[in-house]
Amino acid sequence: MRDDSRRPAYLAGGARVWALALLILGSVASPSSAREETRIQPIAPWERVAVELAVVYAESGAAAWWDRLAADSPLVALGRERALAEIGVRAGPSRGSLWRLQTVVDDGDSPPPHGGELAVFALHFPSGLDEALILELVETAHGWQLFDLRVWAESGRPVHGDEGTPGAVALASNEFSAMAAESARPEAPAPKPPLISPWQRVWGPLVGLVLLVVAASVRRHSRLFAWFLLLLGIASILLTLFLPGPIEWTMPIPWSGTVLEPESHDDESQEEPAPVPTLDSLVTLAPLRSALAAGVTRDRIDRLFTQVTNRLAGLDEDSPGEALTIARLWRAQYELAEGNLVVAGALLDELPSSGVPPLGEILRARLGLLRGEGVETALGYERALAVLPAFDGLLLEAAEGWAASGFDGRAEALFNRLAASGSRQAGVYDRLIDQAALRHDEEEALAFFNTAWRLQPAERSQLLADPVRSFLVRRYNLFSVLELARPREPVPLAAQDGRSEGLNLPAGFTATYCGESLLLARDRTHIEVPGGLGLAPPIAEAEGADSRRQRTEERILAALSEVETAASGLEDDEQPSFSRVGRLEQPIQRAQLETAALALARDHRWDDLLRLTAPFAALTAPLPPSVGALRAEALRRAGKVEEATRLVVSIAKSNVAAGRKAPHSLFQLARLLTEVEEWDLAIRAVQTAEEQMLEPPLVSIIPRIQMEKRLAQGYKIHRSRHFEVRYPSATRLYFVEQLTEVLEKETRRLQKWIPYEPEVPIEVHLFPFREFFRLYSQGGEVVGLFDGRVRVPMAEVRRLNPTVVAILSHELAHALIAGATDDRAPAWFHEGLAQHVQMLQAQINPIPDYLRQGKLVAFPLLDPILDGRGDSQLVQLAYDEARWALHYFEVRHGRRSIHRMLKAFERGRTTAQAIATVTGMSVEQLDADLWNWAEGRKTWETEVVRYDR
């Protein structure tokens, strides 16, 4: 039987329901008003010292911190050897970890005790497990020094000197950790808490009277039900009048991040000074900490857990302190990360209801996220935020968890709180862009865009592929800001005069900065300082977003390769940390999974992508949509069409039902769903995506999906050697036969550029002319479509003139390119070559106008624009540039260059590799030569063949 006496006050009686109600109220609260200017919190002096501590720890371990301890630190009282051991077990191994400085959110609440300030690092160990290291620093005659440290698995130190009853909870604001602390002085058992609160004593009789009135009104219709209401009403009145009370409630208020404390009845009004904290020993856990951080074998972990728990359990009850609880929490964290949700849940259920360390609440929230239990996720994060310093990494994770649980308003309020507090994480403002888009607030979206770009620029390819961000680029003419005419990513150089004195790095360290984000590295240890440009040493080098992404990819893919190389010595469940099911609950692990999947897909390593994502085959709900879509594509390429279909349908259902804020990913899912003829789900995905765009599309694609559904359910088929033509029953057969003959002749003509013989019939769908233009044309620009099938508005055409044939030849070229390259050709080559060979007469060259208006987009950026669902005007610009790029290849390098490009793409080469092979130039050199050549051309003419005579 569960011991309810240990339940915290805010969960007693019906309070769990009220806590959930408050969360729901928070989820519908209106967002905060837009700010005119985003204030980024600067790096404070004590945070600078914290970064220095991280640097010397990476070089020399815990020994480097001894001389930096304040004289009155509880660590000093332990002696040097013991203090170093306590530091080491909390900070973990010094090699191979990622330290990321967090922004401590200042809500104006009470400061930390002992006159200090807080600095927080989010630690990510090589194994994939994460940690929060909380440092308290004090200002002394020798500058800022370390006073105390703890991790989120600890319950904390007493901060107000509460020494009354055992288990007394010292509650403070989110500016400093408000954690449960057991009193060192034994006292008599606490009295049993009363059952009824004052406000319950008021509304209880009222509810009872209402029940009595209802009972009287229904007596004639149902005597049994009337008696039931009568007894329930009498019980409500008697219980609320005669049960003892009142109880004092301690309940977190979701929208404020603060905690209401019971009124103090202490006669002493004079505040006592905060005592020097005591430090619970965690030295016994040092071997376990090292093993968990390094990611050793399962057997080794199991043995260490057994040894540690047996040793601690055998000690006197008061001796282990928190060590035994922390060991169990680390075990639950490990099991959760490994995807053993049942075991992790059982371990967390063994924890008491009150006084649980913050890590316990975070793990409960993460477990709820993986299980799809929204209430448990929301309440877990709410309780964790009530007892931890409010730092942006935790708030960001909580906001994502709330959003995934359906508490969108609560999540938005938390994101706005992060922005208002001056968070230094670019990801905060990136998410706020999407929220502003949902409100159709362009100016606020632009302000957040500028802030995110200043803190850490995103790759331009990501921005241009996204509907919201590409709209901002075009709408506010950000071509020069993003340097879109340059083939290389911009590397903004920071102003030296605004920079404070940089750090003095030991030998062996490197320093780079991207925007205002500083990265320090030594061997495999990385220290990230968002907003830390002012700390950059003289040796620091600026880098673009692509460079930082490439190094991240190399690190992640290296981990994947290491596992594959040592596969013979590993158990079946030993995989890279970011490809384990349980890691989906960690934001950094999700980001690493997406990075790895995108990198493998870009290099056409589909088999590797299937192995990477295999653990998630049966768990689709929390899977990032982009990763799910890539796995489905890999399955399709592997011939596992049915499995790919099931996966796409499952992901679409979970993401559409949850209303995920990812329009680009939802459009991808809709495309996949139409391919497998899941029409209704595709329509729902598009509806969700279009609602999240700043500017609605010129033509919604929902009606076209509806039309394809109708056509699929009622069409006729005509077959030839290379084609299978599907057409409405109203279309005459003799015209379909003529059209099919033209398609065969055009295939032979196009083979001069695309030397490919179709191995399977190409599907051609004929649509009614007016309906196609209404649903597909997007303002008259789209006159045909290829998405694995050729779709053209020819169902009512009676004469195959050159304009009509041009439409056919364009889409047919796409089909031949896809077949010739095993569907590996990039978008720029697809669109450029299809336009290059289509049967049209003179085409006017728009490139000189783009150059004159400053709107030319560099050649490497064409692909993301054409591949994504970006701004329609940018897409048209990219079409024009791709067409003239293919004109350039034939004129400058001959028709054989196009053949060689096709062959290179078939072999899985990237654009840069294919260009180097065919032309001997780099992408940057080709970009300069291409636009210089195009600027001098006026028109382009194509040979016309008349099939209508």
Short description:
This protein is α+β, with helices and mostly antiparallel strands.
Give an overview in words.
With 949 residues, the protein is of the alpha+beta class. The protein is built from 36 helices and 17 strands. It has an eight-stranded mixed beta sheet, with helices on one face. The chain has a five-stranded mixed beta sheet with strand order 11-12-13-15-14. Strands 5-6 form a two-stranded antiparallel sheet. The longest helix has 22 residues, at 872-893. Mean pLDDT is 77; it is low at 1-36, 157-197, 245-277, 562-575 and 656-660.
Note the main sheet: 8 strands, mixed
Structure classification = alpha+beta
Report strand %: 5-15%
> Which outline best applies?
globular
Radius of gyration (CA) equals 32 Å
- Number of strand segments: 17
Query: What's the quaternary structure here?
Result: single chain
The DSSP helix count reads 36
Mean pLDDT: 77
The strands making up the biggest β-sheet line up spatially as 4-3-2-1-9-8-7-10
As residue ranges, the low-confidence spans are 1-36, 157-197, 245-277, 562-575, 656-660
Helix share, percent: 40-55%
> Distance between termini?
91 Å
Question: How do the strands and helices of this protein lay out in sequence?
Answer:
Elements: H1 15-27, H2 45-60, H3 74-77, H4 80-91, E1 98-101, E2 117-124, E3 130-140, E4 143-151, H5 198-218, H6 223-242, E5 252-253, E6 258-259, H7 286-294, H8 298-313, H9 323-337, H10 341-349, H11 358-371, H12 374-386, H13 392-404, H14 408-420, H15 426-438, H16 442-455, H17 460-465, H18 467-475, E7 510-514, E8 517-522, E9 525-529, E10 541-542, H19 545-565, H20 587-602, H21 606-613, H22 625-637, H23 641-658, H24 663-675, H25 679-691, H26 702-713, E11 716-719, E12 723-727, H27 733-750, E13 762-766, H28 769-776, E14 785-786, E15 790-792, H29 802-820, H30 827-837, E16 843-844, H31 847-853, H32 862-867, H33 872-893, H34 895-906, H35 911-919, H36 923-934, E17 939-940
Parallel strand pairs: 1-9, 7-10, 12-13, 13-15
Antiparallel strand pairs: 1-2, 2-3, 3-4, 5-6, 7-8, 8-9, 11-12, 14-15, 16-17
